[in-house]
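thread from #wetlab-drylab

HS: before we spend reagent money on co-crystallization trials with NA7, can we at least see a predicted complex? here's what I'd submit
DV: go for it
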Amino acid sequence: MSAPPRETSPRIVIIGAGFSGIGMAIQLERAGFRDYTIFERADEVGGTWRDNTYPGAACDVPSHLYSLSFEPNADWTRLFAGAHEIQAYLVGLVEKWKLRDRIRLGESIDEASFDAVRGEWTLVTDSGESVRARVVISCCGGLVDPAFPKIEGLGDFAGPAFHTARWRHDVPLEGKRVAVIGTGASAVQVVPAVAESARHVRVFQRTPAWVLPRMDAPVAEKQRQRFSTSPWRLWLRRMRVFWASELRGPLVWLDSKRLSAPIEKLSRRFLRSQVSDPELRRKLTPDFQFGCKRILISDDYWASFERDNVALETEAIARITPRGVETADGRTHEADVLVYATGFEVGFRSPPFEVRGLGGRRLADVWAEGATAYKGVAISGFPNWFVLMGPNTGPGHTSVLVYTEAQMAHVLGALRRLRDEGLRYLDVRRSVQERYNAGLQKRMSRMVWKTCESWYVGPDGSNHSLYPGPASEYVLRTRRFDRGDYEAARF
Ligand code: NA7
């Protein structure tokens, strides 16, 4: 073999310029890895926060935690920032770190294959261009592509019909009858906001959800100044929010009726305070264990059903017709606008495009039984390929960015090894990955998520999206790059 090439930075490609891609690029800059390019298939950065612009869109994790710890923001104007503000934060980071020149907007990666001899990935873009990189960091996100329900007549509606993640701002809702399908995290935000202007909103519910008060409030100007002049206060706020969510974690994830009972009681009491009609309350009360589906937080979703212009429909949808939504009992609910608040195709279950690793093995085949990775970051047989927000790295109780930052640290550790040892590639040992995942799945059996259907679990009930434990534990085991876990190939 020839002598190792003296690279100051291996050539890196980041795929995706959302929260994780932007954060990763900043960490590369900070660590001195300057030879990188970001491919972003959309025409602007921001990912989730570029796409979700529906009325009421906001994060459901407090902003002082739902932001990058190495890019703290003293200026959040609300405890739960709106989508515009989060998007402005991300665009601000791109400008601050001068990342624009690094990002190839409107270009998607369609396939990737690894050349073991050269220790190099070849990526093919949608325009057919081949791009080579030593290391690929896939930052494609987990909830990206809108999911539409499998309902007859989906394309038949005569008026505007669109998904919350593709909001049609050119469609005025004033004076209109709006039908909203879905009652998940997006619906609880969009329904109260749309009810402010629409003539009538009808919400089609398949499953009622547990809702807790959000207790959102503006962050006073004085407080923001304090955060700005004393960054330790901001850090303290972040720590408070983080540890409060960590302490509550077991209530959310454990399959324990005893732990769920007090929090379900709290949610029921909240429902009573928001909705006066007992029959309506009954329809809005879930029958699955708290935490099994994503917990919804809203100060005004349930209360919006008290309005004269908001109605709840619990009859199953039979089909979409040109005039509206027909339910199983034969009634047609006429509407002028149809909104799908029906969530996303879950990206944790399959690769975002064709990926071929050692020996030409397809990632789609490796993941056919469900996506797995070592700590959610590395996949045996796919050397120098790292994933952010990968399999089993989602939380039900706290900010996903806490996990993502640990993954960034792991990737930096790998990059340092590649550079300092002049390695051709690093490939996580299969036995290490298998042991890790066996441990996860064993713990999964004690988690509440197996007790109901949700986007967390696949059709066979397996869970490849969430991490079954505290975020702090995940961070401790992930942020350190343990060289012994990887096989190294030299030049
Ligand atoms: P979710 O949480 O996946 O919610 C989708 C909603 O759409 C949910 O209430 C579904 O009911 C409902 N849905 C899906 N298909 C149908 C049909 N056919 N009929 C009626 N209702 C249907 O997506 P969100 O966008 O709200 O949130 C996604 C995540 O983004 C969220 O968890 C946060 O992490 C951010 P179901 O409960 O399945 O009966």
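DV: The mean pLDDT is 96.
HS: ok that's useful, forwarding to the group
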